[in-house]
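From the shared-data thread, chain only:
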Amino acid sequence: MIKRIVLYIGNPAHSGTLKKLSYVALGLTVAADFLVQREHAMYIWDKIPGWGALYGFVSCVVIVLVSKFIGHKCGVMRGEDYYND
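Structure, as tokens:
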């Protein structure tokens, strides 16, 4: 069962279907956030529906961009043939 799922996800022919499925999952997550009761929210941004999904997405994008910058510009990343020279 797991093997079939991994092979399905790894197949480039299914990328369109997986992308649509991801958008549906994201939409359901944001829609479910509108159903949460917010009477006991401590901070003002906790009362905004969809805030957690937006904050998490932006945080992940920032982590990827910062790590790419560190890897490429600060010399952490080496070329593919680094050990073959």
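Residues 2-73 form one domain.
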